[in-house]
Amino acid sequence: MKAQRQAKILDLIVKKEIGTQEELTTELERAGFIVTQATVSRDIREMKLTKVAMSDGKLRYVAYRKTEEDMREKYIRIFRDGYISMDNAQNILVIRTVSGMAMAVAAALDHMELPEIVGSIAGDDTIMCAVRSIDDTVIIMNKLRRIVEDAKVD
After folding, report:
1. Model-level pTM?
2. Rounded to an integer, what distance in angstroms lies between the CA atom of residue 120 and that of residue 76?
3. Dihedral, CA atoms, 44, 45, 50, 51, nearest 10 degrees?
4. What would the pLDDT profile of 100-131 be if each residue is shown by its tens digit?
5. For 33, left (φ over 0), alpha (ψ -120 to 50), or beta?
6. Under DSSP, is residue 154 helix (H, G, I), strand (E, B) or coil?
7. Cβ atoms of 94 and 88 closer than 8 Å
8. Is 88 helix (H, G, I), strand (E, B) or coil?
9. Beta 92-97 vs 126-131: how paired, if at all?
């Protein structure tokens, strides 16, 4: 029943401009669902619905979905925010970060799914990345430089 109700909620917010829990409750009841305001409130929270402003200033519910692109941008932002410098020793890439940011930056690198990096170890302000080969080290350093330089242009 819950899955059907939540599917109906998605259908309703796509088709109608629904801006309050009361409006949503009324529309669900018209569709044959017996719900309380507490149930609707729980569904909104579980479904991660959010309100956005329309051109006329009214608010309406929408389903917020994090796409792969949204997440990639988040990881890039974390990398940029923590990055200070990098250097290499053969196929080991050493990245210096803002103090306390190494683990977050290393996690961001892992999630960016850079095929050249086999794995990384983070301390407080230093990350050591094992890279597949010396050639791959040059490739990954160029990729990371471009990410940082793009931030300076923004």
Report:
1. 0.57
2. 17
3. 60
4. 889 889 988 988 889 999 999 999 999 999 99
5. beta
6. coil
7. yes
8. strand
9. antiparallel
Give me the torsion for CA of 114, 118, 120, 126, rounded to 10°: -70
Residues in the chain: 154
Distance of CA 100 to the CA centre of its chain: 21
Q: Which two tokens stand for residue 116?
A: 């050249």
Cα distance between residue 37 and residue 25, in whole Å = 7
Tokens of residue 89, six digits: 């020793």
Buried b (16+ CB within 10 A) or exposed e, 72-92: eeebbebbbebbeebebeebe
pLDDT in tens, 66-105: 566 667 788 898 899 899 999 999 999 999 999 988 988 9
